[in-house]
Amino acid sequence: MHVRTNHWALLVINIKEKEFHVYDSLRNKDRRDIPQYVEELRRYMKGKHIDAENWSLRYPDPCPQQGSGDDCAIFTCKYMECLARRDTQALPFG
């Protein structure tokens, strides 16, 4: 998801656990818009007859953090790669 005007993070819908997971390489920054994205997803899912109203929003660990200010897209792609492979052991790549 595109956060603010200059940052990328990964929002995962975990249907099995009934949770939304956010993988954000700049976790300590103010990200007030992330809950807004989640609310939009909840409304969309409700339209598809999936009740996600009580699903929690989590920021899983480990979640590698970027050192520089312009690597968020690379980190987001790497999060997707590790999760697609179901290889959470590879997540501490940072």
Percent of residues in helices: 25-40%
Provide the gyration radius in Å.
Answer: 13 Å
Order of helices and strands: EEEEHEH
What is the name of the CATH class? Alpha Beta
Tell me the structural class: alpha+beta
Question: Main β-sheet, in a few words?
Answer: 3 strands, mixed
Discrete helix count: 2
The tally of structural domains comes to 1
**CATH fold name:** Adenoviral Proteinase, Chain
Mean pLDDT: 89
Second CATH tier, the architecture: 3-Layer(aba) Sandwich
Strand content: 15-25%
Shape: globular
Give the distance, in angstroms, between the N- and C-terminal Cα atoms.
20 Å
- CATH homologous superfamily heading: Adenoviral Proteinase, Chain A
Report the strand count.
Answer: 5
Provide an overview of this structure.
This protein has a three-stranded mixed beta sheet with strand order 3-4-5, sandwiched between helices. It is globular, with a radius of gyration of 13 Å. It has helices spanning 33-47, 72-84; strands at 2-3, 7-8, 10-14, 19-23, 56-58. It has one domain (2-90): 3-Layer(aba) Sandwich (Adenoviral Proteinase, Chain). The model has no long low-confidence stretch (mean pLDDT 89). The protein is 30% helix and 18% strand. The chain is of the alpha+beta class and 94 residues long. The chain starts with a strand and ends in a 10-residue tail after the last helix. The chain contains two helices and five strands; from the N terminus they run ββββαβα. A hairpin with a 3-residue loop joins strand 1 and strand 2.
